[in-house]
């Protein structure tokens, strides 16, 4: 047989499957076009008097709820108009838009009703998306409201995140108006946690008192069921604190006061709260060195640690998690998280480094946390200055690009600080401000000029404090008023020094501190020795005081 007539062996030619991506994208677009054109619609859904013409096929494909309605012999499968109960018209319109486009728009104002509607219609993707959105937006202004919602609808991921946040920031949250709106079960769920960050148990008692007095007639009868969750055995000093509580009007004047007094007097071996045994410390390090210093000058606690890692930059989150960024290779940096229990660093992710020419370019790295989100800011100084900003998604363990400021100006001088929910970059002539909620940059203070010799800054509340290299003055920028104030530095020291070489500012226990690198004359010779001074700012006296040499 001639070669041309031979047929290939069956195993030599294998079948293949082809997928037309453009068809998949175009199909959903075509369905959306039919909806907009109001063509081929075969059912009308009515929500509180609002009518939404739709396609049964699309509804059934998107939602198990509608699939059961239209395919299981229910009366609605034969009706032209179907009335839906328990839905908000605006939210249903948003969900319908998602069914026809695949795009969902979520905000803090809509996420809760969207979740309820998605839960009713059995839309798992929408429900999971809303849960994730709520969990990522737990902060001072939202934690109580989201906690209540998550408790009612059993959204465990959000409930856990809110409870963690409330426990970590209990003192602040308990003083808010929203805290008093908690149900008795929600309140006891919080105050029964070991993770409550309180120094003294009286803080928990005072929070309960505020909750009861906010609506005394409605809440006072709950007090006997609440008190067992307060750990009266941890009162210090016990007898004095106990007598104060027993003398409180809520206990003394209530008709059931005898039962309340018995509950208060009953002590137990309940565990200490986490805040009773924790110590707030500042973490200081020099970039590209393996030594780190943990300090609390007030308690005179200083711990030096050496790790097999050289950080470029670091940050401490509002949840007291410590992250550092270390050089992993010439092209990537590694994001590391400190394991407190094991006192070691664990790698979480990698992020691409900004390409530089070591002979001409200078690169500064910043790691910042805003409202529970990590941001990596890189400032490149070269012939063409550049700013790069990335946001870390803890759920996906990936980094996402953020917008960058336009016309950044001269970056030969720059300081970057996160403050009051924003990122600020200070250059010689411009202050750039980044709003992470809107992913938007703007310019501040048009008449701004960078102070001479300013070397670094730190945020305290809504202010950013700068100092010069000789520690002769501080500049304060008020982020809310967009204004500047200069303050001379007044020192109250026990140590004589010849000069200050470098100053590091930091905030500890909501107070401004500084570590000053000084040169001192030796008492035994004329030689100069290097001595570190730890200073704390006394805002009442407007003076810096030495805490330890």
User: Which stretches of 5+ consecutive residues score pLDDT under 50?
Assistant: none
Count of helices? 16
Helix content: 25-40%
Rg is 31 Å
Q: Architecture of one domain, CATH level 2? A: Alpha Horseshoe
CATH-assigned fold name of one domain: Serine Threonine Protein Phosphatase 5, Tetratricopeptide repeat
CATH top level label of one domain? Mainly Alpha
Q: In percent terms, what proportion of residues is strand?
A: 25-35%
**Average pLDDT rating:** 82
Please tell me what the overall shape is: globular
Structural class: alpha+beta
Please give the alpha-carbon distance between the first and last residues. Answer: 101 Å
Strand order of the largest sheet: 23-27-26-25-24
**Biggest pleated sheet:** 5 strands, mixed
Please report the total strand number as a whole number: 27
Question: Topology of this protein?
Answer:
Blueprint: H1 21-36, E1 43-47, E2 50-54, H2 56-62, H3 64-71, E3 81-84, H4 89-101, H5 111-120, H6 124-136, H7 143-153, H8 156-168, H9 170-174, H10 184-191, H11 202-214, H12 216-219, H13 223-226, H14 238-246, H15 249-252, H16 257-265, E4 282-285, E5 291-296, E6 301-306, E7 311-316, E8 322-327, E9 332-339, E10 344-352, E11 362-370, E12 373-381, E13 386-393, E14 398-401, E15 415-419, E16 422-426, E17 431-435, E18 440-444, E19 454-460, E20 463-468, E21 473-478, E22 483-488, E23 491-492, E24 499-508, E25 511-521, E26 528-538, E27 543-548
Parallel strand pairs: 1-3, 23-27
Antiparallel strand pairs: 1-2, 4-5, 5-6, 7-8, 8-9, 9-10, 11-12, 12-13, 13-14, 15-16, 16-17, 17-18, 19-20, 20-21, 21-22, 24-25, 25-26, 26-27
Helix pairs in contact: 2-3, 4-5, 5-6, 6-8, 7-8
């Amino acid at each position: 047989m001639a070669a041309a007539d031979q047929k290939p062996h069956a195993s030599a030619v294998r079948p293949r499957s082809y997928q037309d991506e453009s068809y998949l994208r175009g199909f959903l677009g075509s369905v959306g076009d039919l909806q907009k054109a109001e063509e081929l619609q075969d059912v009308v859904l009515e929500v509180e008097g609002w009518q939404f013409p739709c396609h049964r096929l699309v509804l059934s494909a998107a939602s198990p709820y509608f699939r059961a309605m239209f395919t299981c012999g229910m009366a609605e499968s034969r009706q032209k108009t179907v009335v839906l109960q328990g839905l908000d018209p605006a939210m249903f319109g948003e969900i319908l838009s998602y069914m026809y486009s695949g795009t969902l728009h979520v905000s803090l104002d809509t996420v809760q009703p969207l979740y309820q509607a998605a839960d009713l219609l059995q839309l798992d993707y929408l429900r999971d998306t809303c849960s994730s959105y709520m969990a990522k937006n737990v902060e001072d202004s939202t934690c109580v409201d989201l906690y209540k919602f998550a408790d009612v609808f059993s959204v465990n991921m959000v409930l856990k995140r809110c409870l963690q946040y409330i426990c970590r920031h209990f003192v602040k949250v308990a003083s808010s108006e929203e805290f008093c709106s908690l149900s008795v079960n929600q309140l006891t769920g919080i105050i029964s946690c070991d993770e409550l960050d309180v120094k003294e148990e009286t803080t928990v008692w005072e929070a309960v008192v505020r909750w009861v007095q906010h609506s005394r007639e409605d809440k006072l009868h709950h007090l006997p069921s609440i008190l067992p969750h307060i750990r009266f055995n941890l009162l210090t000093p016990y007898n004095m604190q106990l007598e104060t509580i027993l003398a409180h009007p809520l206990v003394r004047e209530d008709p059931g006061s005898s039962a309340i007094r018995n509950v208060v007097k009953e002590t137990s071996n309940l565990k200490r709260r986490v805040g009773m045994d924790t110590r707030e410390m500042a973490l200081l390090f020099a970039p590209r060195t393996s030594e780190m210093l943990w300090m609390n000058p007030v308690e005179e606690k200083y711990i030096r640690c050496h790790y097999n890692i050289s950080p470029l930059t670091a940050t401490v989150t509002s949840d007291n998690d410590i992250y550092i960024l270390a050089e992993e290779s010439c092209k990537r940096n590694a994001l590391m998280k400190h394991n407190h229990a094991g006192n070691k660093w664990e790698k979480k992710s990698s992020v691409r480094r900004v390409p530089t020419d070591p002979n001409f370019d200078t690169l500064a790295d910043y790691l910042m946390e805003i409202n529970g989100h990590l941001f990596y800011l890189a400032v490149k100084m070269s012939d063409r200055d550049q700013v790069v900003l990335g946001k870390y998604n803890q759920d996906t363990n990936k980094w996402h690009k953020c917008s960058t400021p336009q016309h950044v100006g001269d970056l030969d001088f720059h300081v970057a600080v996160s403050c009051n929910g924003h990122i600020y970059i200070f250059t010689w002539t411009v202050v750039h401000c980044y709003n992470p909620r809107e992913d938007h940059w703007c310019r501040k203070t048009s008449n701004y000029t960078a102070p001479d010799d300013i070397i670094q800054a730190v945020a305290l509340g809504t202010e950013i404090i700068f100092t010069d290299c000789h520690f002769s003055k501080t500049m304060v920028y008020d982020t809310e008023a967009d204004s500047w104030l200069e303050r001379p530095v007044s020192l109250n020291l026990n140590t004589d020094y010849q000069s200050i070489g470098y100053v590091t500012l930091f905030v500890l226990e909501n107070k401004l501190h500084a570590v000053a690198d000084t040169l001192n004359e030796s008492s035994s010779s004329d030689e100069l020795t290097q001595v570190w001074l730890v200073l704390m700012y006394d805002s009442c006296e407007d003076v810096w005081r030495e805490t330890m040499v």
